[in-house]
Amino acid sequence: MIYTFFSLDVYEKLSIRSKELLIDKKEYLKTFSLGNIPLSYNKKYLNLYNDLNSSKVCELFTTLINYIKYNDFKYNKQVMAYLYGMIINYNLSINLNPYLIYKGGLKKYTCIKNYLDNYIINIRKKTNPYHYKIYKDSFNINYLDKGLIEVIDFSYKQVFNVDNYSKIYFKSIKKMKKFYKIFRYDRFGIKKIFYSIFRNKYLSYHTKGNKSYLNIEHNKWYNPTNKRVNITLSFPEIYLNSLNSAFKMIDEINKYIYYDKRINLDKVIGNKNYITGREIGKEKELKFFEN
What we know:
This protein is mostly helical. The chain has helices at about 1-15, 15-20, 25-30, 45-55, 55-70, 75-125, 135, 145-160, 165-185, 190-200, 235-260, 265-270; strands at about 220-225, 225-230. It contains 12 helices and 2 strands, in the order ααααααααααββαα. A two-stranded antiparallel sheet has the order 1-2. Helix 1 crosses helix 11 (about 235-260), helix 5 (about 55-70) crosses helix 6 (about 75-125) and helix 5 packs across helix 8. The radius of gyration is 19 Å and the shape is globular.
């Protein structure tokens, strides 16, 4: 999964202080870098998931950050892993999702994402992606720390008026892990046969795809909400740009939390839609696709 490897790359760029804090909690960082994606695997909370993607993004981040800072959670390892994970997810999502949606539309979005997952796994793990146990590598968290529960529950209640969000979140993580174990892992290729018969491109890792999904040729593509926003970045460039922006955001927020640096959190974070990558309030209808 892209977010898993991306989180580890961000970790390598962090300050020595942050690395030492999370050195034995990198497994948490990998899980938390999924952001609120686990909610999309819990049908009961799909509407909430959509709201979290498209509204009050900056308000949620500033609430989390200030609660951590002023209630002395800045040395709680799981709390900081969660904050960094959310920042990591935000930066990659707002840059990558518009590309995936434009390239694949709503029908092929998952197919292209699977191809890129396979691409990353091949490069980083040197193994057949069908044999790779994502459910073990990306979901190694067995509990939420008491401090993290407090931070999460306060912030989501304050911003979205949702009670006990930590319970919703943790249950959704377990559902997502189970989904990946049942439907994605395919050591012996049995599921590949099943999926080929029923042509279920949404569940199978067996995505043929092609290298055009990487856009190495730098063909022009557009934000799916507005054709005036055109881009030529390749997938590797999107990944690298997201890596740099995530690190810069974490670095600025660390200065605010640990050294009381006066910064404009709204400016540092922005208020972008996770799906469109555009500022919330601008066009959000997905209507421009490659095919």
